[in-house]
Design a protein that fits this description.
With about 775 residues, this protein is an alpha+beta fold. Helices cover about 15% and strands about 40% of the residues. The protein is built from 12 helices and 32 strands.
């Protein structure tokens, strides 16, 4: 509650500052006017045609300076606090806010109209518009002490390209350059554009380097435009080499030797090292630290190949993905003794600096949950890298957690303890009975991951749960954005060690929950596809998609046998080694779209849909495979796992927070506007909607999915503050329920702003 009050006070202070900011005009000196902004009007001559007018106008707007003071809802809070501190007596709060958001005033006198007109003219000439007419004027409003500067630009017809060719003075390099411009983006009809020419030089430079021209660079190329042949704003464009370009810059380079240092450690240069020749490469190491046959598939640089930056970068990326190395450094040195008239030669040296072979990491956490449980958690991880001298990594994980329910209700004092022990063995290659050519995986070599884990959960006065899980599968990146994960073997065994009378009563009252706990053994396969476009830096629209398919029980059913008939229903179900196994198919998709609206500002949206269908040996989905809604990463106006299914409403006075409300179908939508406040402090306003349902009648009352699902969505809205330090995010969200499906129909729009839900979490919600 104290945290909620603190956040509420901060917002009140900020809003108060905004209200007072409308009075900043009283501080403006008599001979000055505040700069309110700019107007830019761009028009065309009658004969002019411009295809990308919006982009051109946006570029011209960037030349307008200085930028006026920031406004929010027509007010200037930053300017208000600057004046308050510098011209009035100010208290601690005002001085604090001035340090955080204060801005010096920007006046009309700060605007240099003539210099701005010259800058606009220069930008237009760089884009092919010569002899443009540019005018400016000022609109003054003495009553509110503000002024607006308007610029009017009249564009003539631009100069357009007639021919693009190589200057024959570049012989004997003429033929090489001629091949590079055949598919150039600069074509007949293109507008004169200096930025396009710069990009063209860089494009040609990159292509030449891929053909082995190690010492070439874009600065050796120059453009010349000739308009003498035309009188209708046409021009010929010539590409040529600068004078005195070094001869080695116009010769391709081949790789003469490839030397690999698998154990490059500072201070070990004087130690005697052995050289092993494998696959036409030299492996130089003081001992057999890394097996050459295991390392060779990651190295794409080959003796006799032309130098290629693309191959060098791919080799560095692949070596870095092994997980055994801290640094990968590839250096090239010229081999002078082998120079000839047509070729030069390089020696490639690959230095690999390993991580510590063994490492221990400990994490101590203080955990608080929306279900009022809180307590400490300790996690330990032991890592052994390059275990079998082939880049393998063994991670052994141990965890222990203790939680107690601290809320003052009938269940206060309940405790929960959890102990877990697991191990992952990661092979940086494909383990498969049939040899797979690693050249098939162009971007990266798949990893094989073998995992096993045991977990013991004890909830006092309720139940004890022992879980064993294991998997065998592969993970690999198809390219920079796409990742595949495939576990052909995924096993899960759940054993309810004991259950109290109270918990047995709950199971008796809820056949759906009871059946979900009976599915003791799960054996299946899981495939996951991820496209992560959020890492792109060149787009305003960013996409993320994760889709998972989980199928269980088909193969194990071939090995199982019929169990004993149920004493009540008479039905018989298959079992494997005496354990009832689950059969189901489950698929879900998580789609995210972010739109960048400004620096550190974006609109983030997410849609999630998932469905699990039990069949054969299963009447319901296993409890561990069901969907839940509510919480810090879901619909934030409802507590963790407390929303749904459907319109289900827990009995009055039932505050048992261990009871998770689940379903086999989930729909959810979220939208959030994120913006900077100051430095590492960010803000957000958001709205969430979603719920879970069951597709059968044997669940909780009101939980079955129907065509009326829109009216059964839980909806909430709120605001949050995030501390974002280089990608590590601590998040505080306060959300209020707007639509509660557990209420009676007609009374679900609760708009309960007086009882918001506070969420504390690590990382952004989506």
């Amino acid at each position: 509650m104290k945290t909620r009050n603190f956040i509420k006070h901060i917002w009140i202070i900020l809003l108060a500052g905004m209200v007072y900011s409308c009075a900043v005009k009283k501080y403006v000196p008599e001979d000055e006017l505040l700069l309110d902004g700019y107007k830019l009007e761009v028009s065309l001559d009658s004969a002019a045609v411009v295809k990308d007018m919006d982009l051109l106008k946006a570029e011209l707007e960037q030349t307008l300076s200085p930028k006026p003071n920031a406004q929010f809802l027509g007010m200037r809070p930053g300017l208000h606090y600057y004046y308050k501190v510098n011209q009035d007596s100010a208290g601690f709060i005002s001085r604090f806010l001035n340090r955080k958001i204060g801005e010096e005033p920007v006046y009309l006198s700060d605007v240099e109209e003539e210099a701005t007109r010259d800058l606009i003219r220069n930008r237009l000439e760089n884009r092919g518009f010569f002899f443009s007419n540019i005018f400016s004027e000022v609109e003054r409003n003495e009553d509110i002490k503000e002024a607006t500067v308007s610029y009017r630009v009249q564009l003539p017809s631009p100069y357009t390209l007639e021919t693009y060719q190589i200057d024959r003075d570049s012989i004997p390099f003429y033929a090489v350059l001629e091949n590079q411009i055949e598919d150039s983006p600069i074509q007949k009809g293109s507008r004169f554009d200096l930025s396009a020419m710069k990009l063209e030089r860089e494009r040609i430079d990159q292509r030449l380097k891929e053909k082995g021209y190690y010492n070439f660079n874009a600065g050796f190329l120059i453009f010349q435009a000739d308009t003498n042949q035309y009188d209708n704003r046409k021009f010929d464009l010539f590409l040529k080499l600068k004078k005195d370009v070094p001869s080695k810059a116009v010769k391709p380079y081949k790789i003469d030797k490839v030397n690999i240092y698998p154990h490059n450690v500072a201070g070990m240069d004087t130690i005697q090292k052995d050289t092993t020749r494998f696959a036409d490469k030299n492996y130089i190491q003081d001992k057999r630290f890394f097996r050459p046959d295991r390392l060779d598939p990651f190295v794409l640089i080959e003796e006799g190949d032309l130098y290629s930056p693309k191959t060098s970068k791919a080799t560095s990326r692949r070596l870095g993905s092994i997980g055994a190395y801290k640094f990968v450094n590839i250096e090239y040195s010229e081999v002078d003794s082998l120079q000839n008239d047509t070729l030069n030669f390089l020696e490639a040296n690959i230095y690999l600096s390993p991580l510590n072979k063994r490492a221990i990491r400990a994490e101590l956490q203080g955990v608080t949950k929306s279900n009022d449980f809180a307590g400490p958690a300790l996690g330990l991880t032991f890592s052994n890298r390059n275990l079998f001298r082939g880049g393998e990594t063994l991670n052994i994980n141990a965890k222990a957690a203790y939680e107690v329910q601290i809320a003052s209700n009938t269940q206060a004092g309940l405790t929960s303890t959890e102990f877990g022990l697991g191990a992952d063995l990661i092979f940086p290659r494909v383990l498969f009975p049939i040899t797979i050519d690693t050249d098939y995986f162009e971007y990266s070599i798949p990893k094989t991951i073998i995992s096993a884990e045991a977990d013991l959960l004890n909830r006092s006065k309720l139940y004890g749960l022992l879980t064993f899980s294991g998997s065998f599968g592969y993970v690999w990146q198809a390219n920079k954005y796409v990742t595949h994960e495939f576990d052909p073997i995924s096993l899960n065994y759940v054993n309810l060690l004991y259950k109290s009378d109270e918990f047995q009563e709950i199971l008796d009252d809820n056949p759906f929950l009871n059946n979900s706990f009976e599915q003791q053994f799960i054996s299946g396969l899981i495939y996951s596809f991820t496209y992560n476009g959020m890492i792109r830096q060149d787009k305003k629209s960013l996409f993320f998609v994760n889709s998972t398919v989980d199928i269980a029980g088909n193969s194990i059913s071939l090995l199982g046998q019929q169990g004993d008939p149920d004493p009540v229903t008479g039905d018989t179900k298959g079992d494997f080694l005496g354990l009832e196994y689950a059969q189901y198919a489950k698929a879900d998709v998580d789609f995210r779209y972010h739109y960048i609206t400004g620096k550190e500002q974006r609109i983030a949206t997410r849609l999630f849909a998932g469905l699990g269908v039990p069949y054969g040996n299963s009447d319901v989905m296993p409890f561990s495979k069901q969907y839940f809604s509510g919480g810090a990463y879901s619909v934030r106006a409802f507590r963790t796992r407390s929303l749904g299914p459907g319109t289900y409403n827990p009995p009055m006075g039932d505050n048992r927070s261990f009871f998770d409300q689940s379903g086999n179908l989930r729909l959810e939508a979220n939208v959030e506007y994120r913006f900077p406040i100051y430095s590492y402090l960010k803000g957000a306003v958001f709205a969430d909607a979603g719920n879970v349902w069951n597709t059968s009648d044997d669940g909780l009352p009101g939980g079955k999915f129907s065509g009326n699902f829109i009216n059964e969505l839980g909806i909430g809205a709120g605001a949050g503050i995030r501390v974002d330090v280089q990608g590590f995010v601590i998040r505080f969200d306060l959300a209020a329920p707007l639509h509660d499906p557990s209420e009676e129909e007609g009374a679900r729009w609760v708009n309960d702003f007086s009882n918001p839900v506070f969420n504390f979490a690590i990382g952004y919600p989506f």
